[in-house]
TrEMBL record, chains A, B:
Signal peptide: none annotated. This is Zn-dependent hydrolase. The lineage of its organism: Bacteria, Pseudomonadati, Pseudomonadota, Gammaproteobacteria, Cellvibrionales. Keywords: Hydrolase. The keyword Hydrolase applies. It comes from Microbulbifer elongatus. One of its GO terms (molecular function) is hydrolase activity.
Length: 410, 410
């Protein structure tokens, strides 16, 4: 069993880096605070006897060596991990928990003097949130071959700083190539970020996959004119199209209830003057569904709705696809390892699909992968009030420990 | 008659300061470019023999002395003027025309060696647009006693620069107190910024007043949560309220068609992350109507709509009143001076009310005031494509000359 108190203390110590007034965390990717968080993690791993390497995407890997196959070569490692970056108004557990639960597994193995055949390894993936640099999960994405390194380095935050320059600035542009090595298995433990486990009073979510998600920028272009003398009739006002498109997209999500999601996290306006009808609105659109066919149908409908309403309101429109992350089914052997770890430990549980994207989405393309969820308070995440019970966090880390041991000692 | 070519040449020379790629102007209040425009105007006035003073709001007054009452003291001046600042994507005529038409009147009097009993004066009012610093018409507003000097100095642009600091920085914080002196009359000539004169093929608008206008910040506060795992059902999403409020406010304007206006020039979102339901939206709302009673009724309905929809969508809301400019009726003697100048000159004309706010709104509180409009192409303003015919601009300046002469030689 892992040490729940130590895990909690580490979480609380890490949460001080970027702590916000409302009790959350603002430790966005590749900021000075992200560097501080990384430095603390690296120090903890070195104290635990791990070999730490950093790749050219700033992904950090901390390995506890295995004993190898009897008389033979080293075995491929069993990996776990998640991310240390947060939303601008994020919580103390999203991502961080998966990283520190991995560290707690290693500390527990050290305490008990347990050796494993395969190495056990904890990863910190860069910029999982996609909040500062879009898209999400770009560290694991480059590593798994989904994105080019140059594409990643060229991503810009709202101030125009590039990912590459910021990575270099904080001193985490490493030497190792960002590409996959053979892995025996990969696991990730995470807070659910939704209300299901809490509502059904289950301790552990056994994940079979991740829903599909599409990100877009919808641009509506009208004709700027004066707020006073310009008659309402002849206006080509992007807000006149916007409100009708929002209405239709919320209805689209309702048609595919309860699983479909439609979210608008950001909007930009030009020129942004009180007494001028805007020339341009750019809306960030996030559409999701666990069933890829349904998500594809939603994508189609979104395009039709935007085109029709833009036409009816005299606007030009453009849909730029920012990111597509198709629905994922996890590796059956890894799912089974989690299932049997939960059974061994006797925790109440539920089989489920993740509503959020995670680094495991990309890792699953190149290695057998699955995930473990624990409940979070009121299902609230991407919110400074994000919270989780120490006993649930402890349970999740115990499941992680047992699942990793199963795969590390085949 | 004024010199139409000289007026046009001065307009085009001024338009080079802050010229945009699309043929418009970006010379926002208290920027370096505003300073360049002011410097050029002051030089022109000094070349024309005027005495130039600058007040503590940066309002510039260029006076051509009068001969005084026979054997008696100086007479109160006849004032004209407008503003040199533009929208971020503004045109070459809005405001600038009124300033340079005033200068052209003085140049014409000089050419003809005409003396007037009362002094003739041209004013440049600071920050009329309200685009960089809200509210609009703050230079004339402080001068006329609508706003305190301290309130004006403390206004901030989007980067947090204050009006007072920027005024000082560009060297236009003058010594003269920003307060009214006795004036015989005040006139302002301006492009219509709407489509009526062009549609009805009239050269001159004889203005009887200005419509009422209200500016608000509507804030909608929800609960940030994750775009993926959070069910649509329980969300408190500011965009869910926003689209319904926009819909209702456009309907409200329709109910009071054809004169009511509802414009949303700006929107801000927090935290502005793609995969997070926003905590907060702040929408700039501009409501107008020429009839003050109707505008008051619209104000009431706006408050009811926002409160009801916020309640129905589980949001908190706040309405901050940014600015109120009640409907204005101009001085009958000044309106009559314009009417008879138009009759003398034989231009086609129409009596009308201004849809836009102008410095004359505030000047009219402390001096007999009225305005003259000329057509602009397709009624387009607050747009880089803003355009006007040289012959119409010439006609407007001739009306200004004759109206001013009537009042300056009583
Ligand atoms: N877990 C998490 O917040 N992931 C970010 C990617 C997403 O938007 O789902
Ligand atoms: N003329 C003009 O653009 N005035 C600004 C004030 C308003 O919004 O009407």
């Amino acid at each position: 069993r892992i040490n729940g108190q130590r895990l909690w203390d580490s979480l609380m110590e890490m949460a001080q880096i970027g702590a916000t007034q409302k009790g959350g965390c603002n430790r966005q990717a590749l900021t000075d605070l992200d560097k501080q968080g990384r430095d603390l993690f690296v120090k903890w791993c070195e104290d635990a006897g791990c070999n730490v390497t950093v790749d050219e995407m700033g992904n950090i890997f901390a390995q506890r060596p295995g004993t190898g196959s009897k008389g033979g070569p080293d075995l491929p490692p069993v990996l776990t991990g998640s991310h240390l970056d947060t939303q601008p108004t994020g919580g103390k557990f999203d991502g961080v928990y998966g990283v520190l639960a991995g560290l707690e597994v290693i500390r527990t193995l050290n305490d008990a003097n347990v050796e494993t055949a395969a190495p056990v390894e904890v990863a910190v993936w860069t910029n999982e949130e996609g909040a500062r640099f879009s898209p999400a999960m770009i560290g694991s994405g480059v590593w798994a071959g989904e994105f080019d390194l140059d594409y990643a380095y060229a991503r810009q935050d709202k101030e125009g700083n590039t990912f590459g320059a910021e990575l270099e600035r904080i001193g985490y542009k490493g030497q190792a190539p960002a590409k996959p090595r053979p892995l025996a298995a990969a696991f990730e433990v995470h807070i659910e970020q939704g209300p299901i486990l809490e509502a059904e009073e289950k301790t552990i979510g056994v994940l079979s996959g991740v829903q599909g998600m599409n990100w877009y920028d919808l641009t509506l272009i009208g004709q700027p004119c004066h707020a006073g003398p310009s008659p309402m009739e002849g206006r080509r006002d992007p807000f006149m199209g916007l409100h009708r498109i929002l209405d239709q997209l919320y209805k689209l999500a309702e048609e595919h209830a309860p699983w479909a999601r439609a979210t608008f996290g950001d909007i930009r306006v030009e020129p942004g003057s009180r007494n001028t009808v805007p020339e341009k609105l750019v809306l960030a659109v996030d559409l999701r569904h666990p069933d890829q066919k349904t998500l594809d149908a939603m994508d189609q409908r979104f395009r039709e709705i935007a085109a029709r309403i833009a036409e009816e309101t005299g606007l030009e429109h453009e849909i730029r696809e920012e990111w597509r992350s198709p629905a994922v089914a996890f590796d059956t052997k890894c799912v089974e390892a989690v299932r049997s770890a939960v059974a061994d430990l006797g925790y109440s549980n539920k089989e489920m699909v993740s509503g959020a994207g995670h680094d495991s989405v990309y890792i699953s393309r190149v290695a057998p992968t699955s995930m473990i969820f624990v409940p979070c308070e009121k299902g609230l995440s991407h919110n400074e009030a994000e919270n989780a019970e120490p006993k649930d966090l402890e349970a999740g880390a115990n499941v992680l420990l047992h699942a990793m041991l199963k795969m590390a000692n085949p």
